């Protein structure tokens, strides 16, 4: 099971492929000549013709207090119909770009892309016996980019199963198969994306299967700071740190306070003032029961639910 930091690292790789930003560009709107997806949008560049852009914008419009919901609601029917004339709608593109700065849009995108791309990738990887962070990142990239099943099946046919080859060897063969498919594809846009396989292969060559930070992807430096944005603090609450799993583990009285709060609520947890994997796991359990985002990060919302604000 990946840590939250490994998940963010895997997603950062694909974010860089899609938007050149490890955290993704939530407001990025792209229309590329010859792209069958037509209008694409957001952190993981979901497309108009897949139908996913409609689902994403619908989810945003249904979210309470979404700043641009009233405007975007007028486009829902055309998005549902996959109306490709929207490619040239300057008003829609401008609103989508502005909406990317809305924290509600960012939260909707995080949940949407986890549900549509990340979680299926983890399941698909697990079904094959792929468990490493880099291996899952390769599957995730293909599911976001497209044609995962076809390339998976060709690799299985040509080279054998993960069990037969071992995960690292199978992933290397898969990258080669997919790179060849991209390089010889009839679509010029896909031929230009062989860099994705080259970047993933470089990580495999140096043996960074656990996606240990820091590393480079296409010249972009990926470290802890690139994955975990500095969140605003409120002096009224004593400038509490945002707590999450990292290396080295966070330590201190604030960690102890969270552990004690979890213990008082009946969770089995060692109060040792160290935010390790066990503490992250218990935090996620609590967040699930409290109907919070299960990311293992102790910020204002989780503190409030624990009675610490």
Description:
- This is Peptidoglycan-binding domain 1 protein.
- InterPro entries: Glyco_hydro_46 (IPR000400), Lysozyme-like_dom_sf (IPR023346), Peptidoglycan-bd-like (IPR002477), PGBD-like_sf (IPR036365), PGBDSf (IPR036366).
- One of its GO terms (biological process) is carbohydrate metabolic process.
- With 309 residues, the protein is mainly alpha-helical.
- The protein folds into two domains: 4-220; 235-306, Muramoyl-pentapeptide Carboxypeptidase, domain 1 (Orthogonal Bundle).
- The chain contains 16 helices and seven strands.
- It has helices at 4-19, 52-62, 69-72, 76-80, 90-99, 103-128, 133-145, 148-159, 162-165, 167-183, 188-191, 194-205, 224-227, 253-264, 277-289, 300-306; strands spanning 29-30, 40-41, 46-47, 215-217, 220-222, 250-251, 274-275.
- Strand 2 and strand 3 (46-47) form a beta hairpin.
- The chain is globular, with a radius of gyration of 21 Å.
- The two termini are 31 Å apart.
- Mean pLDDT is 91; it is low at 230-238.
Distance between the termini: 31 Å
By DSSP, the count of extended strands is 7
Question: What are the low-pLDDT stretches, counting only 5+ consecutive residues below 50?
Answer: 230-238
Give the assembly state of these chains: single chain
Strand content: 5-15%
Helical amount among residues, as a percent range? 55-70%
Please outline the major beta sheet: 3 strands, antiparallel
Strand order of the largest sheet: 1-2-3
The sequence of SSEs as H and E is HEEEHHHHHHHHHHHEEHEHEHH
Query: What's the overall average pLDDT, rounded?
Result: 91
What structural class is derived from the secondary structure elements?
mainly alpha
Measured on Cα atoms, how large is the radius of gyration? 21 Å
